[in-house]
């Protein structure tokens, strides 16, 4: 799609367990395509570093070794750990990237030995100089609640660095817009996914939505979802969704979990981080 002054290029690719769509605007379609391709490569790199399931990822190496010895990780992984620990401290553990969801446990148990319950939590993650990490107690590190948003931010940084004037990156509902253009985003109703319940205008900010209703299922006679409250380790259920608008996507991604798990505390944190929340329910 072209105009007298700019060109828009839109591409979509399966990535991060979802579909990632990128929109880039500038003055040359060829350069926009190159920028988008570079941004996809950057997102793939984040996925390889922070996947729970890849045996060669930083997360897998930490889960295998960090209780026994210090482990050096990539600078991006270290930055995500810093972000996550800061949010855990600020939320008194309402965000905790060491509590594996029931669905994650189920996926691991299908392929390997049962995933044991481990005593550690976010307080046991120690960040050391030189991008080194150690665990004071055994734990399951899972960056799924923040890494997808971080990957969106990485893609945006890549697009901007390669000359894209305006654009948006959308990774299955974790999205961020940049530049002068305003984008209209519709949020699905948690009880009726085919219906759009709320419209948000994004300009130079991010939006992330969390809801258990799209993954809720039954396991061993109990209803579970991919979302878990780390304060009591219960699975989040029901026709509810939380969308958070924030300056960066990793922050919107993490704060959406805090709103679910500690809504009263979340009011203060949202104001502190310059964010807003939209809560929808049946």
Topology:
Layout: E1 7-15, E2 18-26, H1 29-50, H2 58-65, E3 71-72, H3 75-90, H4 102-111, E4 125-128, E5 132-135, H5 147-161, E6 166-171, E7 174-178, E8 183-188, E9 196-202, E10 206-210, E11 217-219, E12 222-224, E13 228-229, E14 234-235, E15 240-246, H6 249-261, H7 263-272, E16 276-281
Antiparallel strand pairs: 1-2, 2-6, 3-5, 4-5, 6-7, 7-10, 8-9, 10-15, 11-12, 13-14, 15-16
Helix pairs in contact: 1-5, 3-6, 5-6, 6-7
Describe, in plain words, how this protein is organized in 3D.
The structure is a single chain. The protein is α+β, with helices and mostly antiparallel strands. It has three domains: 1-52 and 142-171, no CATH class; 55-141, ApbE-like superfamily (T-fold, Orthogonal Bundle); 182-282, Roll (T-fold). Helices cover 33% and strands 28% of the residues. The chain contains seven helices and 16 strands. It has helices at 29-50, 58-65, 75-90, 102-111, 147-161, 249-261, 263-272, and strands at 7-15, 18-26, 71-72, 125-128, 132-135, 166-171, 174-178, 183-188, 196-202, 206-210, 217-219, 222-224, 228-229, 234-235, 240-246, 276-281. It has a seven-stranded antiparallel β-sheet, covered by helices on one side. A three-stranded antiparallel β-sheet has the order 3-5-4, covered by helices on one side. The mean pLDDT is 86.
